[in-house]
Design brief:
This protein has one helix and nine strands, in the order ββαβββββββ. With 139 residues, the protein is mainly β. It has a single domain (18-135), classed as Protein of unknown function DUF192 (Jelly Rolls, Sandwich), CATH 2.60.120. It has a seven-stranded mixed beta sheet with strand order 6-5-8-3-2-1-9. Strands 4-7 form a two-stranded antiparallel sheet.
Length: 139
């Protein structure tokens, strides 16, 4: 058996505070501008207690490796529904769904990144599609 090649998707832990997420499967269609969130306090708070979220912005929750339990989310303290896209370490969308307040969600497959945004992001990213992140030059 041959060894699998290097991941097609690489993330540096020194990523900037904001990234632009694009859908490579749809000719680079912009998905959302997201805040990079890799610390425990940032991930715990998430979008809780916000009154609204502009449709063009989101939050990228980052883990050190693919997993289902580590990328599960809670909607406690949320005042509105959001769109959630789970992305594996290679940049492939493994699950996407609308999340309602006061529930817990677990991705269908292991993921490394959890992209939270307005429900409209679900129109720009679907299971099986490949996403890429780039530094936001306007940050």
């Amino acid at each position: 058996m041959g060894r699998r090649g290097p991941p097609r998707f690489h993330v540096s832990w020194w990523m900037p505070r904001w990234v632009v997420v694009r859908n490579r499967s749809r000719s680079g269609l912009p998905v959302v501008r997201a805040r990079w969130c890799s610390s425990f306090p940032c991930k715990l708070r998430g979008l809780s207690l916000r009154r609204s979220l502009p449709p063009e912005t989101g939050l990228m929750l980052v883990e050190s490796r693919d997993g289902r339990w580590t990328t599960s989310i809670h909607m406690f303290g949320m005042l509105f529904a959001i769109g959630v896209v789970w992305i594996d370490g290679r940049g492939t969308v493994v699950d996407a769904r609308r999340a309602s307040p006061w529930r817990v969600y677990l991705p269908a497959a292991p993921a490394r990144f959890t992209l939270e945004g307005s429900p409209e992001i679900l129109e720009r990213a679907a299971v099986g599609e490949e996403l890429e992140f780039a530094e936001d030059s306007h940050a």
